[in-house]
Amino acid sequence: MYDVIIGGASFAGLSLATKLSDCKALLIDKNKPGEYQRSACCTTLSIIKKVNCEESIMQTIKYASIHTNKEFNFKIPEPFCTIDYKKFCSIMLNRAEINFIKANIKGLKNKKIVTNKGVFSGKIIVDATGWEAVLARFMGLNLQNKLSYGLETEAPYKDDTLRIIVNNKIIKDGVGWIFPCGDKARFGVASYNGETKLLPILKRFVKNYGVKISKVHGGFFSYDKRPPVHNDLFLVGEAGGQITPLTGEGIRKSIESGLICGSIIKKILSNEISMERGINKYKKLMRTNDALRKKLIKLQMNFAEHYPTKLNIFFGAITNRILSHIFWKIYKLI
Ligand SMILES: Cc1cc2nc3c(=O)[nH]c(=O)nc-3n(C[C@H](O)[C@H](O)[C@H](O)COP(=O)(O)OP(=O)(O)OC[C@H]3O[C@@H](n4cnc5c(N)ncnc54)[C@H](O)[C@@H]3O)c2cc1C
Fold first, then answer.
1. Are residues 16 and 158 both part of a single domain?
2. Which terminal residue of the chain, N or C, has fewer Cβ atoms less than 10 Å from its own Cβ?
3. What are the tens digits of pLDDT across the range 23-81?
4. C-alpha 190 chain-centroid distance
5. Distance between CA atoms of 19 and 3, rounded to whole angstroms?
6. Average pLDDT over residues 213-229
7. Is the domain of 158 the same as that of 211?
8. Hey, CA dihedral for 43, 170, 156, 199, is it positive or negative?
9. Structural domain span for residue 25
10. What number does the ligand 1 atom closest to the CA of 239 have?
11. What integer pLDDT is reported at residue 141 of this predicted model?
């Protein structure tokens, strides 16, 4: 019997694992940590510094540009960075004193996780399996499955600016992006409506920059509201809805929720607080601003309709030198 079992060894699961020293804990993932990258891996510099993973940084970025039929250039209120996912996962896994097993989770009943490598019991179970929230589903949580989809490639390209492309001629109900990472850049397109046939769109998009597609990766990202706890199952990261609608920014929130949940679980296990108090504390700390979330979801669902006039007004406001700092503070509440 383990003290804690975490399903999912990515941003959320690994951050949580680093908080569980001296616990009998098990981390399960169907892939080796860092083996399968599905994200553009661009996040705030401060969150990477918070988990002491500066070694995984490929490029620090201070400027951004939103391209519609106009161009909005601005200094980001706080610097971002692109990271090497494999390196990030390897650093975090080495730091966490935890047993890891590569196994596919196939069920959960009475705190027993069923995998293709055997059955494992834990006093506390954590779902960190991303948008699929597999453990929560096995416990009967009904998810709305509101999903967007993104596809990406990495190619040689030097830049110092984080670029978001909003153009109906490239992708109608979504966005494109170019995130520089050293001598390369990550080029991606995403559909807010969850359209998965994005390869021809990605090919056309990168052609504009004289880039050819080699390998592609990607996947779904969720924007439905999810509870941080289901019965006594903790949901961290994207499994627990820790991703911002419209921007699809999930790494910062996944790491933060993993760290918070890990500290609370440690206190529960050392009998500093009861399970009930721990659950309530986690729920309280994961509370998001629902009204703001709804506004962002509404905007993303009607994105194409607002192009270009209303979107230009919106981007003009959020990229304004003074207003951008206020918007950034509000954005972080979501
Ligand atoms: C194309 C794309 C680009 C993105 N770009 C960015 C970006 O630049 N910046 C940003 O902040 N966010 C980005 N996101 C969102 C971000 O990637 C996610 O929000 C983030 O990865 C969530 O972290 P997580 O740890 O909660 O889950 P995940 O990173 O999704 O990890 C879940 C883990 O669970 C494992 N798992 C799933 N099912 C099972 C199972 N049955 N058995 C065992 N293991 C299982 C998976 O193998 C995986 O390792 C992007 C998303 C996509 C799709």
1. no
2. N
3. 999 999 999 999 999 999 999 999 999 999 999 999 999 999 999 999 999 999 999 99
4. 14
5. 13
6. 94
7. yes
8. positive
9. 1-38+87-144+226-289+297-301
10. 26
11. 95
